[in-house]
Amino acid sequence: MAKGGCFCGKVTFEFSGEPVKTVLCHCLNCKRITGSAYSTNVTVPSSAIRTQGTPKQFTFDSGQGPIFRISFCDTCSSALWKESDAEGFKGLHLIQSGALGPDFDNYPPNGEIFTPFRSKWLSPLEVQQFEGTDSGL
């Protein structure tokens, strides 16, 4: 069972089982959400995650079709997970892997998405590469 939470500890979560997939996302929204060059998303079935505390949510248009809700702590602003009712995302939590703390290393990526937006100074990982969200992973 993996555990995680926000920086201040107000919102915590845990999930059981193996992730559906883990991807690096290079889209511009994920860069803004994380304040970094990409986000690492550990995707798990929503039924496998249990949360404690009530995160705040912000809804945004991905610009690629899906509308996402991102959950974050309203005290420390840590991004925790994203959800969407769009095809291919419904019933899933896309956990921001940095929120996993020490469990982060247990979930290496098996793909990279939105690769045209990868920062020019980053080299591709030796995993599957996809130009959009249709990773097929």
Q: Order of strands across the widest beta sheet?
A: 6-7-8-9-4-3-10-11
Radius of gyration: 14 Å
How far do the termini sit from each other? 22 Å
The third-level CATH topology is: Metal Binding Protein, Guanine Nucleotide Exchange Factor, Chain A
Oligomer designation:
single chain
Instruction: Indicate the CATH class.
Output: Mainly Beta
Mean pLDDT: 92
**Beta-strand content bin:** 35-45%
Classify the secondary structure makeup into a structural class. mainly beta
Largest sheet, in brief, is: 8 strands, mixed
CATH architecture: Beta Complex
Tell me the domain tally. 1
**Helical fraction:** under 10%
Order of helices and strands: EEEHEEEEEEEE
- Tell me how many strands there are: 11
Our count of helices gives 1
Which blocks of ≥5 consecutive residues have pLDDT under 50? none
Shape: globular
Features:
137 residues, mainly beta, Metal Binding Protein, Guanine Nucleotide Exchange Factor, Chain A, 8-stranded mixed β-sheet, 3-stranded antiparallel β-sheet, 1 helix, globular
